[in-house]
Amino acid sequence: MYRNGHLGMSLLVYAPVGYLLVGRRPLLAVLGGVVVLSLASVPDIDHRLPVVSHRGVTHSLLFAAGVGAVGWAAGTVLGGLGIAPVDLAGTTLSPALFLGFLGVYGILAHLAGDVITPAGVPLFWPAPTTLSLSVVGADSTVANYGLLAAGVVATGAALAVGVPG
Predict the structure, then answer these.
(1) Per-residue pLDDT for 79 more than 90?
(2) CA torsion 63→65→71→72, rounded to 10°?
(3) Using one digit for the tens of pLDDT, what is the confidence trace for 113-163?
(4) 24 φ, ψ to 5°?
(5) I need a surface site. Which of 42, 51, 109, 142 has the fewest CB within 10 A?
(6) How many percent of the chain have pLDDT more than 70?
(7) Using N-to-C axis directions, what is the helix angle for 141-161 and 26-38, rounded to 10°?
(8) What secondary structure does DSSP assign to 146-162, as a single string?
(9) Which residues contact 112 (CB under 8 A, 6 or more apart)?
(10) Residue 93 has what DSSP assignment?
């Protein structure tokens, strides 16, 4: 996928989380969406790293876990500053767990966008197996803008309806 497709996929997969948060913590719902959107293209940093191949380590569960660990560390600092825990679907998450979750979730959204392409992703890197559903080419204008439109609609609906507080 290209940037618009990754943004759309991020919005699409974040919509259920936003739906669960918006009625009780609307600002947190929006901030969580911003975090996930900000991670939409992070795995493609491999385009700018000369020693890292594209769709290598940055397109794996290992990388998602690493980004989640960074989120957890940031959340630990915020929790120490008195930021309140997050209730997500009846489960109370510390700021560390919530930001760790968003880190992993944001990277997984990117991987979901790439796994539908013929090139796929090495989900279990360094294992050489590549997972691909081969649904649509990464350069498909229809798929990229279709995902963006679907993500905008899903997120808009989730935020408009949301679980009451």
Answers:
(1) no
(2) -150
(3) 999 999 999 999 999 899 999 999 999 999 999 999 999 999 999 988 987
(4) -105, -35
(5) 51
(6) 99
(7) 160
(8) HHHHHHHHHHHHHHHH-
(9) 9, 13
(10) E
Rounded CA-CA distance 145/76 in Å is 37
Closest CA to 1 of 120, 151, 156, 102: 120
Taken as a whole, the chain contains a residue count of 165
Question: Mind giving me the DSSP string for 22-90?
Answer: HTT-HHHHHHHHHHHHHTTTGGGGGGG-TTS-TTSGGGSHHHHHHHHHHHHHHHHHHHHTTPPPEEETT
**What is the model's pLDDT at position 44?**
97
Q: Looking at this protein, which amino acid is placed at residue 137?
A: G
Q: Using one digit for the tens of pLDDT, what is the confidence trace for 23-34?
A: 888 888 999 999
